[in-house]
Amino acid sequence: MILVFKYFFRGKYVGLALWPFIFLKSRDLKEDQVLMNHERIHLRQQLELLVLLFYLWYVLEWFYHLLATGDAYRAYKMVSFEKEAYRYEGDAGYLASRKPWAFLRFLHE
């Protein structure tokens, strides 16, 4: 399910996947196939980790990178879940061929 919340997002962020929803900054973003694929990759990751474990892992990994870099946005880009989603967001067939736990190979990349 896709929900639009114009005032929910700040800065560069325009989409967010929180199982089972995708939140978008504006209605027209529903047509952005790359963004929608990125968020769907996150929904698959969340399912693999039974949702709550995904959020815990995500926050811990982000915080680790924040401490290492001192930069919140850079820490976000270094999270393994984001690396996988950014790498394959342009591949419309990725989710059909994606292997379980694929984000793990991005932990040390």
Structure description:
It is a single chain. The protein has helices at 33-48, 52-69, 72-78, 80-88, 94-97; strands at 2-4, 15-18, 21-24. With 109 residues, it is mainly alpha-helical. Strands 1-3-2 form a three-stranded mixed beta sheet, with helices on one face. Helix 1 packs across helix 2 (52-69), helix 1 runs antiparallel to helix 4 (80-88) and helix 2 packs across helix 3.
How much helical structure, as a percent, in the residues?
40-55%
Sequence of strands across the biggest β-sheet: 1-3-2
Oligomer: single chain
Helix and strand element order: EEEHHHHH
How large a portion of the residues is in β-strands, by DSSP E? Answer: 5-15%
Which stretches of 5+ consecutive residues score pLDDT under 50?
none
